[in-house]
Each structure stands twice: as structure tokens, then as C-alpha cells.
Q: What sequence folds into this?
DNA sequence: AAAACTAGCAAACAAATGTTTGGTAAAATT
DNA sequence: AATTTTACCAAACATTTGTTTGCTAGTTTT
């Protein structure tokens, strides 16, 4: 590192917060620069374009979720229910320790006008999430029903996060979490 | 009417389609004008600003939903289940006959950076929706449980619409609809 | 110590943004 | 028929947008 010590990871994190809270198109490079204590032009030393920056943000969110949520489902230790609870705990933290909803769901809602690279990552994100949920459901519900239940759980969580943004009320997620955890005995 | 016959309602409808498919900030006045066969400046003869136009779009969506969905819940005729099915049918049509997700949920996801007028309409929309669902659930589940079930249904539907946008797959909504209709005997 | 590299600033860039202005021709009103 | 109103165009407006360029000073490598 030289003069300043703004790392790529720091820019990605700040950009993530802004994109998530205000949306991709309502966040300018100047906004991101300001949040990092940089001029907007300086960001281009780290990222080729705003679009590439967004891609890296989405990838980082995917990896973070994979590590803290998806991978837990496939751990050897603990009962499926315990692993599910651990996953739900991590999900809750992710959505409520910072402001804004689900950047994947929000960005995904505008697929036809989005760069294809965004869509690809978003699809992978939700597919991986479904597989993780389905895996902890399978011992009790079998493969087929678990797929269905996994999508159902994701849908409810996405809805809960949306309503949280609108009404500033965590309770949608709280009861959703209880319902999902209650699916395993 | 004089020369051309572009009505306010036509502009609202075109703007609705664009806002819904691409988001508020990713839709320009030039885009809306083009969709109406107008120059962007001409829209200001009908609406004071882009923000006011969006407000009218949200109000129009609210009114349309109220007429075709919410009001059905309180009709005198038919069993609660029949009315619920009628509501779900109208919801399905709304979301799948045109492209894009739920403009209320999408816009609501960015509340902190949105004009307060947007948030107000969006909150009213979801509150009215909850009350309508709860009303058809009440005979079977009682007042308290019906509230919970109503929010749960809305969450699932919002999630289903989001996933539909991402995977171009209606089946999320189809099974959600069956689940919700199955809640009433 | 010299050379090469890095991170950032300052300024400029063309293009796109939402909005305003002045005019025109058709329609509605008188 | 004269007047006013309506819907729209054409052009300009100031800002903001994402991006590029040239330069500087610190850091790393040699």
C-alpha cells in the first residue's frame, strides 16, 4: 500500500451499503467516493466502471452469505434444526445490523434492464440459498417437499425484509423466523 | 381535448409500466415521453414533475388494486373462500399480464432515500391489503390469527413476485396461491 | 540511491438528466 | 367569427452523470 490506505474491500463495503439503501441507479460514483473520503475519479483506480464495482459488490455479498449461511447447512456437526437456527441467526444479523433491504432481491426485481452479469450472480445466490435450506429440511421432509419448503421460506424472508424497509418493523422477520425454525422438530 | 389526444391516464399507465420494469431512477422523462409518442418536455403540461407523476402512478396502482382486490374481500356475496380465490385471481393477473414485479414493494425497499409522499402511499397500500386478507380469514381463524396469516400471505406473494422477476418462473406464485387458498376450508 | 509503481487529486469531458421557455396550431368557448 | 384554452414541439437551460486525462507525492522494488 502507498499514500492513502483505501483498500478495494473498503470501497466495496461502502458501495454495498449505498447500493442496498438507495439502489444502484440512485447511487452515484460521487456518493460512493464521498463515503470513502475519495473523489469520484479516484474510484477508477480500483474498478474499471460502476458496473464492475456493482458486480464485485454482489459477489462479495454472495461469498459472505455463503460463508455465514449456506455452508452452515452442510456442516457435519449439530442437528439439522440447530444448523437451521444458526442460519436464521446469521440471516437476521445480515439484514438488520445495517440499513436497507436485500440487495439481491431489489436488484433482481429489475432484471430486464440490468446488465446480464448482475442477473447471473443473483440467480446463483438464490439457487444456493434454496439448496442450503432444502438440505436441512431433507431429513424430515424428503427431497421433494424440502425444495418446496425451501423456496417458501426464502419467499417469506424476502417479503419480511421488504416490509421491514417500509414499516421499520422487525416483527415480520421475527415471526417468519419462528415459523421457519418451527418446521423442524 | 385538442390536437393530440394523449390523456393523463395514458401517460400514467405508460409511466407505470416503465417504473415497474426498470425502477423509478432508471426511467427518464425521455423514456416515458417516447413510450407515449411525446417529447419529454411535453409531459410537464400534464404533470408538475417526475416526482408528482410517480405519486399519481402509485395512487393509480393503489386504486386499481383496491377495486379489483381489496374491495372483493368485503363484498356481501360468496363465501370467504370464494372471495379469497377471486382476490388471488386478480392478483395473479396484475402481476403476470405485464412485465416487472411489484412497484410498491420495489419502491418501498428504498424508503430512506425516497420522497416521503411515496412512502405514505406504499404504507397505505400494504395496510389495506393486509386488512382485506385478514377479513376473509377472520371467520375461520379469528381476528388475531388472521392478522398474522394476512401478513404471511403478503410476504409470500412479494417473495414469489421477486423470484418470478429473477427466474422468469411463474410456479413460485402458483404454489403460493394454492397454499393461501388452501388456508380456507 | 534510482527506478518503478501505486493511490489519489484536480480538472476536464461528453452525454444524459429533470425542467423551463416561447411559440404554434388545433379545439373549445364565447 | 373572435377569443381563449389546450396539447404539443423545438430549443435551450443548468446540473448531474459516468468516465478520462495529466500530474504529484508517497511507497516499493531494485
A:
Amino acid at each position: 500500500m502507498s499514500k492513502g490506505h483505501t483498500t478495494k474491500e473498503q470501497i466495496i463495503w461502502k458501495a454495498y451499503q449505498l447500493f442496498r439503501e438507495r439502489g444502484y441507479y440512485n447511487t452515484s460514483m460521487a456518493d460512493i467516493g464521498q463515503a470513502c473520503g475519495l473523489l469520484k475519479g479516484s474510484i477508477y483506480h480500483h474498478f474499471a466502471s460502476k458496473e464492475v464495482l456493482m458486480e464485485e459488490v454482489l459477489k462479495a455479498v454472495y461469498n459472505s452469505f455463503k460463508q455465514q449461511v449456506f455452508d452452515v447447512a452442510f456442516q457435519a456437526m449439530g442437528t439439522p434444526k440447530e444448523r437451521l437456527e444458526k442460519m436464521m441467526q446469521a440471516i437476521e444479523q445480515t439484514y438488520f445490523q445495517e440499513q436497507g433491504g436485500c440487495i439481491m432481491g431489489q436488484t433482481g426485481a429489475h432484471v430486464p434492464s440490468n446488465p446480464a452479469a448482475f442477473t447471473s450472480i443473483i440467480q446463483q445466490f438464490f439457487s444456493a440459498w434454496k439448496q442450503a435450506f432444502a438440505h436441512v429440511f431433507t431429513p424430515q421432509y424428503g427431497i421433494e417437499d424440502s425444495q418446496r419448503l425451501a423456496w417458501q421460506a426464502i419467499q417469506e424472508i424476502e417479503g419480511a425484509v421488504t416490509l421491514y424497509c417500509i414499516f421499520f418493523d422487525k416483527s415480520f422477520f421475527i415471526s417468519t423466523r419462528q415459523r421457519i425454525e418451527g418446521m423442524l422438530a
Notes: The helical segments of chain B are 8-22, 29-36, 50-73, 80-96, 103-108, 116-167, 171-181. Chain B has one domain: 8-181. Residues 1-6, 38-39, 41-42, 45-46 of chain B lie near DNA strand D (CB under 10 Å from a C1').
